Write the structure tokens for this entry.
Amino acid sequence: MIARSLIPFFEACRRAGGRALVVGGTVRDALLWTPGKDVDIEVHALSLDDVLRVLRPFGSVSEVGRSFGVLKLRHGSGEVDVSLPRRDRREGTGHKGIRATADPFLGPEEAARRRDLTINAIAWDPLEDVFVDPFHGRTDLAHRTLRAVDRHTFGEDPLRALRVAQFAARFDFAVAPELRALCAEMPLTELPAERIRGEVEKLLLKGRNLAHGWTFAWETGMWEKVLPEWTAPPPDLDRVARVAVQDPDRRLALLYAAACDDLSVDGCTAVLDRLRVHRVGRTHVRRVVLSLLRRRDAARGPLDETRVRRLGEEGDLDLLAALVGSERLLELAERLGVAEGPLPVLLDGETLRILGVRPGPEMGRVMAALRERQLVGDIVDADGARHEVTRMLETGGTPDRKSTRLNSSHLV
């Protein structure tokens, strides 16, 4: 659950008169046999300055979160969050309306009460090897059930409702009826887009049973409040989620496309706009999502080599094949050399100029004509392209823009 090298820190806290406990997701994940990289430690009965003095011999310490009673210890190759127990007090609306103040003497049970779910309110004392579990989170883990720690404190942060949907998908746990009712009552419209996006993306990327978490959010009216375009879960959502895509941005784009698979491109655009995906350095993700949906219907129809080359013009054919569940599309794309990107341009502008093509509109028409011949398979290499350019110039057969312009009609 924790690195052995951290045990001296727990012992140092005890010598200083405090008690350090491993808390939150660190304990939950270890009990589920899915240990993660993060370690969260909560220190009781010591002031933040005392904790800082205890920490310093164990690595470099960041005090960026000091105002919230949180310190970060750089230990080995990772970071450890070390915090004091905190009290939350509602002073306004929304997430920013909650004021958190550190209270080192709050006690483990009251500190656990401010957490959202019982499975996240389990603490472990590594020196005594005992669990501090006042709200029976281990029982709920065994019964695979999500339950609120306290119905009154749960409602202080509306985002917790979306976190329940995320955890339902992530662990494939049932949601207790009283918690379901709480989530249905949450005023989610006051939440900022970036916080909603965070939980949506965790659901998509970490979910073991996406349809379960999605259905919960839909049936409790949460989607209607924050993403009204989303209704029943797309039937292929979990199938797509099982596809192995290592690059995180490409995987996220594929899952967004699968989540919007029953929507039009405009509908998906509305979802991405609500989540402000493009404002977090994910312009590429947005572009790939919309590209996949533009080509989706054509990829589900009869496929021949020309159609696959055209589908490859925007790249990511491996993602498109995964989205529509087409092994034939991927097979053809790999054979035609467009699985990882469009066909290469055979002749650049400088080569065309040397061949006698005038820069400007004529060159644009020639390049478009060459691309069209390449997509239908009439030209396969640079020599063939040069021959075609020479033929067009000799015969005056340079096509006009209307006859060579590529548009969506080529895909149907």
Residues 400-412 have pLDDT under 50 and may be disordered. The two ends are 55 Å apart (CA to CA). The longest helix spans residues 283-300. Residues 259 and 303 are 24 Å apart (CA to CA).
